[in-house]
Amino acid sequence: MWGLIIKDLYNLKRQLALYGIIGGVYLAVAGVSGNVSVFIGMIMMFTAMIPLSAIAYDERAKWDKYSLTMPVSRKQIVAGKYLLGLLVLAAGGALSLISVLLMGSADVSENLITVAVLLGVCLLYISILVPVVFKLGTERARYVMMIIIFVPFLVIVTAAKFMGGAAAEQNAFFLSSGFGMADARLLAVGFLLFSGLMLALSYRIAVSIYSKREL
Amino acid sequence: MTDFAIEFKKVVKQYDDFMLHDVSFVLPRGCIMGIIGENGAGKSTMIKLMLNLIQKEAGKITVLGCDSDRLSRSVREKIGVVFDECCFPENLKLKEIEKILKNIYQHWNSKAFKEYAATFNLPENKAVKDFSRGMKMKLSIAAALSHHAELLILDEATSGLDPVVRDEILDVFFDFIQEEKNSILISSHITSDLEKICDYITFLNNGSIIMSEAKDDILTKYVVVKGGRDELESLPQEEIIGIRKSQFGAEALIRRQAAPIGFVVEPADLEQIMLFNIRKEQ
């Protein structure tokens, strides 16, 4: 199985390097501005893309058909992609944490919550997309990917437009109701746990999809 | 240890537009079997079935004594496969591929791989996407031969290569088969290659096996008879397997024992046997 993961890392090394460079630029910007949240968002977005790129490359080379003639099981191929995702996510998460601790302004706690929430979002993103890609192939899964990215975006934008005026009142409501940092922290941890559960569920679905796939 | 490297018993695979009917054949250990047939005859389907890449509807397939539905890790270790395309992701380089396979195969032989890479002149610093077709095939063959495989499964591994490279590769297969327990299954539509190296030939047409026999038996069974169109048409039609008529005469594939006296009779090669069987009248 380790062979499958180093295969992806070798194959994606240019992409990883490119992400590293872009990340470096954003880190520098964050260093100057003192605002690390953009950098964190960037890093997380990149890491969530990695397993999907790996699957796309495999598909193009017809690697799956080939690797299944080796002492590798279908389950291991699926597990390999999730592990790759977790691996790069862990690296991205660690980088984000370090940047928060070293460069974040006074509100470290708020930034930590951002890291946790984004980690959760990335886990959800992987959880939804990996089984879809295994089922439909990368070409068709691309549309699903767009929907997953744009629908929440549109919903948020429209919601913000309609509730624009109400936002200030809402903030006041949250403050007056005593919704403090501790609750936000709890919410973030809960969300992270939920995403982890979704990932486990997604893995089981992907294994069942992939075990029936004709190659 | 069973005597067969591969055994198919009444295997059926159904697609919307194509069906593999009741395919049965055996590849004895220590032998080379060639599968011939036109494109779409079902050669690759058969290979995918034995590797459990696709599911069969009925029948039983045994590979190195193991049911193909449950090919164990240890059996997969002993199989080397070369497809008609190089399946390594495009950005990988030779050294990286070596490291990857070392982490996949328990009995990976780095030394053998490096030696094959040197013999085949594979470039060290190029990514797979910049390899020529010949290089890609050689890379796949080097990988298939470097983990102590006992069974090589080659799906159109020599097609699209020039005659010199093909000859080089056939020599490598010859070396491999010197080991008594080793076997090769090779599908190709280049019948001359198969004629050179195979002990057995399985001839597949439109999803069915037309014949699966020792190559020498097949070659001695048929002859090509040449003569005038009228002369050949006067022969008993049930003896004629296929006939090709031209402006100047005709030639027909016929069973050796039915060969008429007074005609020009030549031995048939695999290509003629395949063509006359598929295109009954040309």
Largest sheet entry of chain B: 6 strands, mixed
Name the largest protein-protein interface in this structure: A-B, 27 and 33 residues
Mean pLDDT of chain A: 84
CATH first level of the largest domain in chain B: Alpha Beta
Q: How many angstroms does the end-to-end distance of chain A come to?
A: 19 Å
Strand content of chain A: under 5%
Q: Fraction of residues of chain B in helices?
A: 25-40%
Helix content of chain A: over 70%
- What is the C-alpha radius of gyration of chain A, as a whole number of Å? 19 Å
Q: What is the tally of beta strands of chain A? A: 0
- Total helices of chain B: the number is 10
Secondary-structure blueprint of this entry?
The complex is a heterodimer of chains A (215) and B (282).
Chain A: H1 2-11, H2 13-33, H3 37-61, H4 63-67, H5 74-103, H6 108-163, H7 166-176, H8 181-211
Helix pairs in contact in A: 1-5, 2-3, 3-5, 3-6, 5-6, 5-8, 6-8
Chain B: E1 4-14, E2 19-28, E3 32-36, H1 43-50, E4 58-63, E5 66-67, H2 73-77, E6 79-82, H3 94-102, H4 110-119, H5 133-145, E7 151-155, H6 163-177, E8 183-187, H7 191-197, E9 200-205, E10 208-214, H8 215-221, E11 222-227, H9 229-233, E12 240-245, E13 250-255, E14 264-267, H10 270-278
Parallel strand pairs in B: 3-8, 3-9, 6-7, 7-8
Antiparallel strand pairs in B: 1-2, 1-4, 4-5, 9-10, 11-13, 11-14, 12-13
Helix pairs in contact in B: 4-5
Describe the model.
The complex is a heterodimer of chains A (215) and B (282). Chain A is built from 8 helices and no strands. Chain A has helices at 2-11, 13-33, 37-61, 63-67, 74-103, 108-163, 166-176, 181-211. Chain A is globular and about 55 Å long. The mean pLDDT of chain A is 84. By secondary structure, chain B is of the alpha/beta class. In chain B, a hairpin with a 2-residue loop joins strand 4 (58-63) and strand 5. Chain B is globular and about 65 Å long. Chains A and B meet through helix 1, helix 3 and helix 4 of A and helix 2 and helix 3 of B.
